[in-house]
Design brief:
This protein is 31% helix and 24% strand.
């Protein structure tokens, strides 16, 4: 599978040859494409056997008065939270790595995260060295109660992860962090960020009633669709592996990994 949570490329015109170069090494490849990839579904069908709309990402256009579409509920709770919290953009995110690991440990415990979403401390140490990382911190007095990580690339700010203390949940730190991120990206970065990608809801399906989906929809009604794509490099072997795995959910790809999440 490609990098979690999306596959992005420096030069999309070379994606096809990159995929071809993997042929001797792989049985299958599963990717979720960057919703800003300059590829139409017909382009994808020429490179993958499986191309499916996966989820809708909520998008904020910073050139179009980005706060005008925030709903009344989110406005109220953002302003309420900001009465007791202040939000700052970290000048050096790596200086707050241990702080972030503590926040995320609370998220892991609160939501019983496991597998790919339960990032290790070592994983975060690597992530904090990736160029383009931006960290917003929510503080109550001198105490951090939440933080939000973003990655900047090609004029887009991609929401990555957010985590909070128990007190942060109680005071609505998420509302303060999103509100200030929209304001700061829109006003203070000299036009380096044109668009914010807030991501999609939780899970592997596009559920409009999912709590995280409703939360993100409150900031913007605009969406872009991302696609799940699958490529089979050896069909005969793929069918054999599925047979040996006693596959019961053939609609999943790759079928032999059904139930992994």
């Amino acid at each position: 599978m490609s990098c979690y949570p999306i596959l992005t490329c420096n030069d999309w015109t070379h994606l096809r040859e990159d995929l071809e170069s993997l042929a001797p090494k792989l049985l299958t490849l599963a990717v979720v494409l960057d919703p800003f990839a300059p590829l139409a579904p017909e382009d994808l069908h020429g490179m993958f056997q499986i191309v499916k709309p996966f989820k809708k990402h909520f998008i904020v256009d910073l050139s179009q008065h980005p706060t005008k579409d925030i709903n009344k509920h989110h406005r109220y709770y953002a302003q309420k939270a900001l009465k007791t919290l202040r939000v700052e953009m970290a000048t050096d995110p790596s200086a707050h790595l241990e702080e972030w690991i503590g926040l995320y440990s609370n998220l892991i415990q609160r939501h019983a995260l496991a597998g790919i979403k339960a990032f290790s401390s070592q994983s975060f140490a690597i992530q904090f060295q990736v160029p383009g990382l931006v960290m917003f911190r929510a503080l109550q007095g001198d105490q951090v109660v939440g933080a939000h990580l973003w990655f900047l690339d090609s004029g887009v700010a991609y929401s990555h992860l957010a985590a909070f203390t128990n007190e942060g949940y109680e005071v609505g730190a998420a509302y303060a962090l999103y509100w200030e991120a929209i304001r700061i990206f829109g006003e203070q970065l000299d036009g380096k960020v044109r668009t914010m990608d807030l991501g999609a809801g939780a899970g592997t399906s596009d559920d409009a009633n999912d709590g995280l989906t409703r939360f993100k929809r409150g900031w913007t009604p605009a969406v872009r669709t991302k696609y799940f794509c699958g490529r089979i490099y050896d069909l005969a072997r793929y069918e054999e592996v599925n047979r040996l795995a006693n596959v019961t959910t053939p609609d999943y790809f790759p079928a032999y990994r059904a139930g992994e999440f």
